[in-house]
Specification:
single chain; alpha/beta; Translation Initiation Factor IF3; Hypothetical Protein Ychn, Chain: A; 3 domains; five-stranded parallel beta sheet; 14 helices
Length: 410
C-alpha cells in the first residue's frame, strides 16, 4: 500500500502520522523504514526491511538515510521517532511517524505481519554508501568526537581537528564547530589531502557558526587525491562543497614535505612562517624550518647567555634583537611600537602569539634547524639558542628540500 497524501493519514504536524494498521499494510518497496530502537531490541523483534539506526546515533548517520522515498520512522513507543521526523522534515525528507511505535504495533496485533521473527540477518540492517546491506550482528557504532573551535584563528581549528583524530582508528567520526570564514575552505582541503572524508559542511546563515562532520580515513588513503563532496544540510558553503581532486601526485623522491628558509628576522614574516608550518604539520607533513643570517635571532634565548666572544661577535650580539619578543616589523615598525601594536591586535583577535605558534610547532614535530655557517659569521653560539634547535648546513637544507613539494624562502 502506498501512503495516501490526503484524508487517510494524519497531518497535524509538519510531518505525517500513520496508525499501526496503516503501517502493517505498507508496501515496503515504496518507503524506507527507519527503526530507531537499540540493536538488542531489534535482534529480539526485527521488523522486515527496516534499517536500524539507534536514536543516539542519528545525528552522525542521518546523512546516510536514502532520499527519494518517504521515510517511515518508528521507535519503541513513538517519542524518539517524533523528534527524528522533525529533523528529517527540516532536511527535506518526507517523514512519516508510526504513532505509538513498535509497542502500539504489537499491542494492536500487527507485529506478526511485519516482524521477521528469529531472522537474525534482518535484525541489524545498516546503511553503507546509501545501499541497504545486512550485517550479523549489528556492528559497533564508530566512535564520535566533537571539537569546539569557535573563536580559534588559523591554524588553530585545523590543528585541533588533526590532534583529535590522530590517535583514533579509521572510521572515527568527528564533528567540529568553527567561526572563522577561512575554515570552510581549509577543512575541505585538509580532508582531501590527508585522506579523511568530509561528510558534511554547513553554516548557520551567512556569517554564522560553521559545522563540519568528518570521518577518519584509512592509512592507505593518507595522501589524499580524491574528490570530496559535502552534504547540503540547511545551508551550503559558497553554493557548493565539492572539492576537486588534486592533480599533483608524488613522483620520484618528491614527497609532501614542506621546507622553509627563514632569512628575515621580521616579526610579521616569522608569524606567517609558523602559521603555515603548523598547518602543514596538522596535515601530517614533515616540516623543516631552516634559519639563516637574520633569521637566527628568532631562535636566540631572551636572556643574555655568558659565553666567551670576540669583540666583533659582541658587537653583532649587541646590535641584533635577542629572541622573539624583540623582533620588529618589516613595515611600520616605528621604533618597536608597531610590533607591540600587532601583538596587541593578535591577542584581541584570539590569534596565537609567535611564542605560542613556535611551541605548537615543536610539539607537533616541526624541525627547527639553525645554519651553522651563519652562526659562525654572526657570532651566535649554540648555548644562546632556545631548546630543541638542531645545527645544520647546506646539505641539511637540500636534503629536506629534495623530499618537499614546497620550499619557501622568507
Amino acid at each position: 500500500m502506498a501512503i495516501a497524501l490526503h484524508g487517510e493519514d494524519d497531518t497535524r504536524d509538519n510531518y505525517r502520522h500513520i496508525t499501526p494498521a496503516q503501517f502493517a499494510a505498507l508496501d515496503h518497496s515504496t518507503v524506507t523504514l527507519l527503526d530507531l530502537r537499540e540493536p538488542d531490541e531489534v535482534i529480539v523483534h526485527p521488523v522486515k526491511d527496516a534499517i536500524n539506526i539507534p536514536f543516539d546515533q542519528i545525528g552522525q548517520r542521518l546523512s546516510s538515510v536514502p532520499t527519494g522515498k518517504p521515510v517511515v520512522v518508528f521507535c519503541r513507543v513513538g517519542d524518539w521517532s517524533e523528534q527524528v521526523c522533525e529533523i528529517l522534515t527540516d532536511r527535506g525528507y518526507e517523514a512519516i511517524n508510526l504513532d505509538g511505535g513498535f509497542t502500539a504495533l504489537r499491542d494492536a496485533g500487527y507485529a506478526d505481519s511485519t516482524v521477521s521473527v528469529g531472522n537474525a540477518d534482518n535484525a541489524a540492517r545498516t546503511i553503507d554508501d546509501n545501499r541497504v546491506v545486512k550485517s550479523t550482528p549489528a556492528p559497533l557504532a564508530p566512535k564520535t568526537l566533537h571539537v569546539n573551535a569557535k573563536g580559534l584563528k588559523c591554524p588553530g581549528p585545523i590543528v585541533a581537528v588533526a590532534d583529535a583524530l590522530r590517535p583514533e582508528p579509521a572510521g572515527t567520526r568527528l564533528t567540529v564547530d568553527a567561526t572563522e570564514d577561512a575554515f570552510c575552505s581549509d577543512i575541505a582541503v585538509w580532508a582531501e589531502r590527508t585522506g579523511n572524508k568530509l561528510v558534511s559542511l554547513t553554516r548557520e546563515g551567512e556569517h554564522g557558526i560553521i559545522h563540519a562532520e568528518l570521518e577518519k580515513g584509512s592509512v592507505e588513503t593518507a595522501n589524499g587525491g580524491t574528490p570530496v563532496t559535502c552534504a547540503s544540510g540547511n545551508a551550503t558553503v559558497n553554493g557548493s562543497c565539492t572539492v576537486p581532486a588534486s592533480t599533483a601526485q608524488a613522483g620520484g623522491d618528491v614527497l609532501h614535505d614542506k621546507t622553509f628558509v627563514v632569512f628575515s628576522g621580521d616579526l610579521d614574516k616569522t608569524i606567517a612562517v609558523f602559521i603555515m608550518a603548523n598547518g602543514a604539520a596538522a596535515m601530517g607533513r614533515k616540516v623543516t624550518i631552516f634559519f639563516t643570517f637574520w633569521g637566527l635571532n628568532i631562535l636566540r634565548k631572551p636572556k643574555r647567555v655568558h659565553v666567551a666572544k670576540t669583540i666583533i661577535e659582541r658587537m653583532f650580539g649587541f646590535m641584533m634583537p635577542r629572541g622573539t619578543q624583540r623582533l620588529g616589523l618589516s613595515r611600520m615598525n616605528m621604533g618597536g611600537i608597531g610590533a607591540k601594536m600587532i601583538r596587541w591586535i593578535m591577542k584581541s583577535k584570539n590569534v596565537a602569539s609567535l611564542e605560542e605558534l613556535m611551541k605548537q610547532a615543536t610539539d607537533h614535530g616541526v624541525r627547527l634547524v639553525a645554519c651553522q655557517m651563519s652562526m659562525d659569521i654572526m657570532g651566535i653560539h649554540k648555548e644562546e639558542l632556545i631548546d630543541g634547535v638542531e645545527l645544520g648546513g647546506v646539505s641539511t637544507f637540500l636534503g629536506a628540500g629534495e623530499t618537499s613539494d614546497i620550499s619557501l624562502f622568507v
